[in-house]
Amino acid sequence: MRELDATTFDEAIGGEPVAVDFWAPWCRPCRALEPILAQLQGRVPVVRLNIDEYPEIAARYEILSIPTVKLFVEGEPRGTVVGLRPLAHFESWLAEVLPAGELDGLAVQGQPDA
Fold it and tell me: What does R_g of the chain's alpha carbons equal in angstroms?
């Protein structure tokens, strides 16, 4: 999972849908969420931001609890999941916050060439 910083954050969220995992290394639920988010990668790109290193970005998006995953589309937050949740929860969440065409297009883009 790609780590964001103060110079890459705005660019990463500025275009196509992307899920941002707001996390910290000391957070056990954050570490437990990593493999779940890795499975989500095929549906939507997932990146992460360490809130201890970039508290100003976490404050900008009112991150009060971690783990928090926010979906951004063209720089705007479109949805939020707070806490450790199973993969099925994230899949349902994406289906709710992204139109089917966007989600299908992302899944196709994520598939390796045969």
Answer: 13
